[in-house]
Specification:
- The protein is α/β, with parallel strands linked by helices.
- The protein folds into two domains: 250 residues, TIM Barrel; 40 residues.
- The chain is 33% helix and 18% strand.
- Strand 1, helix 1 and strand 2 form a beta-alpha-beta unit.
- Helix 3 runs parallel beside helix 4 and helix 7 packs antiparallel against helix 8.
- The chain is globular and about 45 Å long.
- It starts with a strand and ends with a helix.
Length: 293
């Protein structure tokens, strides 16, 4: 596990050398959004300053766009990519925060945005979301609507000391935003803090990044300093990293006794139920994959 942050102009001027010295290894930087109910693009005023600061201090960086439903998704994707330029480190990310659309229309628009960003940048976006938004707006109990999202890395926002619960269709998570009240040297305000579910070597290999130590894409071992403090103290649990990021969404972060309990419950339900609709069958297959693989 390696620590990271996401930042915007709300963090004001950042001393990136201090951030790097604290042990933070990656940063997602806010790039763009269209103001709610208005049509002008808002480029974060500290975007380029933050990108340069992260680069200069040897940090992996990515940029994110806040998705809005009142602007054509192709326009949003092109404006986002133009504002950032080359995504030379981490992939682009999209933050899903609000919607008044039906789940079907929302899924269609989000997919259009993701496909356009990939066609421009050559990289698949990381999807920033949380359980409340995802379950209420994206699939609304119709799992078939979101099967496509399995192809994309997930950043799950869950601001507790408990690691994220499984969220369909992902069997695990790539990034976890675990607090919005982190305290990092070099940043005067509270900041969102993340864990990447793997080592820095995994991050480099999984995203085709360059080693910050050698400048090559070959893996490298690094000694990571003791990271920042947060409101959750030192009780953040240990995690099992991905064995191989080529199999990116394979998660293994439940305690063995919990795995056994959930698996037994599912076996009992499978024995009792015979007639299931398509959605239940898909969910059953996903649960089996998550707990038994």
């Amino acid at each position: 596990m390696i620590p990271g942050i996401d930042v915007s102009h709300w963090q004001r001027e950042i001393d990136w050398s201090e951030v790097a010295r604290s042990g933070v290894r990656f940063a997602f930087i806010k790039a763009t959004e269209f103001v709610e109910k208005r049509t002008e693009l808002r480029v974060d005023e500290n975007l380029q300053q933050n990108i340069e600061g992260a680069k200069k201090n040897g940090m992996h960086w990515g940029a994110y766009h806040i998705f809005r439903t009142h602007i054509d998704p192709i326009i949003q994707a092109r404006a986002f990519c133009e504002a950032v330029g080359a995504f030379s480190s981490l992939p682009p990310a999209v933050q899903l925060v609000s919607s008044r659309l039906s789940s079907e229309r929302l899924n269609h628009k989000v997919q259009q945005f993701l496909e356009e960003v990939e066609s421009i940048s050559g990289k698949k976006c990381v999807i920033f979301t949380n359980r409340a938004f995802w379950t209420r707006h994206m699939h609304n109990e119709n799992n078939s609507l979101i099967d496509w999202a399995r192809e994309y890395p997930a950043c799950i926002s869950q601001h507790t000391s408990m690691w994220p619960e499984p969220l369909y269709p992902w069997a695990g998570w790539a990034f976890w935003q675990f607090t919005d009240k982190g305290h990092i040297p070099g940043i005067a305000t509270d900041v969102h803090v993340h864990w990447f579910n793997g080592s820095e070597e995994d991050l480099i290999r999984g995203y085709g990044l360059h080693s910050l130590k050698t400048g090559n894409s070959a893996s490298t071992e690094k000694s990571i300093p003791q990271p920042f403090s947060s409101d959750y103290g030192d009780e953040t649990p240990e995690y099992t990293a991905f064995d191989d990021l080529d199999n990116f969404f394979r998660g293994d972060f439940q305690e063995p006794k919990k795995q056994h309990r959930h698996t037994q419950v599912m076996r009992e339900k499978n024995d009792e139920n015979t007639g299931k609709d398509d959605n239940n069958i898909k969910e059953e297959e996903w649960i089996k994959m998550y707990f038994l693989q």
